[in-house]
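Quick one, tokens below. Sequence please?
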């Protein structure tokens, strides 16, 4: 498995610290030869999980569930949690925890065990997930770390910001009463670590069909404008994800909008909107700017292979874009989108402010 260089550095530093600490403690009965054994009490993933837990509790404390300003502050702090972002190594899956399917994301296939979309996993760029999704949760402090087979699981007590304006959610979660109920009644946020990296985040809630549903009216619109003419949801825009002085955002916005127009013309949104009508495993969203960033690496290859739309033999619909000039333009825009996104991320990394205070202070309770 390929590991991000930053994550390797973190792991190496933790290993050195653990080895040093262990070597400094005399053994209860010295072995023959005078050598002291290494006693690594915790794995690298467990140490990393504990660091991340402390950071999340500090970054997103409990506030009023409708306080959008508190959420924005939490989003900015979560986007600065390098341990969290580097551990995910460019990709993270997000969805609802199903006890029948367990802790392995590979078990989360949309089938008879996962009959509704609150158990669906969606793929995100880690900073998009942290800033847009993770920031909708507040962490009062208690957490636990345990092993489940080859996985290390961090569980944090969590509360959901359930009373914010509609544009402060990444998309209308309430399009599905079950999904909205699962969010509102969340009990835990769980981070799943495989050896070497963070692979998934899962919401742990009571089964929505076993509790009283929380309903919120939906007008069937994924995108809308507010009374002042501002596009919504605001948090899904590049202007929310990136800093105001990022010079690459304008070009990135333009290339995405051109791509989006072509996606709609080719019916790509039938498979890549939140309701997941085609029941894709590890869903990729294309109808929102920031959420679409996860596809910037694969979109060019998919278009160059003309693999999208997938086609339908029963309906006699062929695979791929049928007009060569349209396909060529979409491929050009996808390459431009990838470059501009990379430039925007690079600018953010180069201009990231240093935290004003240590971010891994021990929380009040564990």
């Amino acid at each position: 498995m390929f590991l991000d260089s930053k994550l390797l550095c973190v792991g190496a530093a933790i290993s050195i610290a653990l080895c040093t600490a262990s070597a400094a403690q005399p053994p209860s009965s010295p072995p023959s030869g005078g050598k002291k054994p290494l006693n690594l009490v915790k794995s690298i993933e467990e140490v990393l999980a504990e660091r991340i837990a402390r950071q999340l509790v500090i970054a997103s404390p409990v506030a009023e569930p409708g306080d959008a300003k508190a959420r924005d502050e939490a989003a900015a702090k979560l986007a600065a949690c390098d341990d969290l972002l580097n551990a995910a190594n460019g990709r993270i899956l997000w969805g609802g925890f199903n006890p029948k399917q367990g802790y392995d994301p590979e078990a989360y296939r949309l089938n008879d065990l996962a009959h509704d979309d609150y158990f669906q996993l969606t793929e995100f760029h880690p900073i998009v997930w942290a800033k847009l999704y993770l920031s909708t949760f507040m962490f009062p402090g208690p957490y636990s770390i345990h092993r489940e087979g080859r996985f290390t699981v961090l569980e944090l007590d969590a509360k959901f910001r359930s009373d914010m304006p509609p544009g402060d959610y990444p998309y209308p979660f309430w399009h599905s009463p079950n999904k909205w109920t699962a969010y509102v009644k969340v009990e835990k946020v769980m981070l799943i670590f495989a050896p070497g990296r963070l692979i998934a985040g899962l919401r742990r809630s009571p089964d929505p069909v076993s509790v009283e549903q929380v309903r919120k009216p939906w007008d069937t619109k994924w995108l809308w404008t507010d009374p002042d003419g501002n596009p919504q949801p605001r948090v899904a825009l590049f202007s929310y994800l990136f800093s105001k002085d990022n010079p690459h955002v304008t070009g990135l916005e333009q290339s995405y909008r051109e791509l989006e127009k072509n996606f709609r013309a080719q019916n790509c949104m039938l498979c890549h909107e939140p309701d997941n009508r085609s029941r894709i495993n590890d869903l990729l969203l294309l109808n929102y700017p920031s959420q679409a960033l996860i596809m910037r690496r694969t979109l060019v290859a998919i278009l160059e292979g003309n693999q999208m739309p997938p086609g339908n033999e029963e309906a006699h619909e062929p695979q791929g874009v049928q007009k060569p000039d349209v396909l060529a333009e979409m491929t050009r825009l996808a390459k431009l989108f990838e470059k501009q996104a990379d430039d925007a991320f690079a600018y953010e990394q180069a201009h990231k402010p240093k935290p004003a205070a240590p971010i891994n202070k021990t929380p009040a309770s564990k």
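The first helix runs from residue 5 to 24. The radius of gyration is 22 Å.
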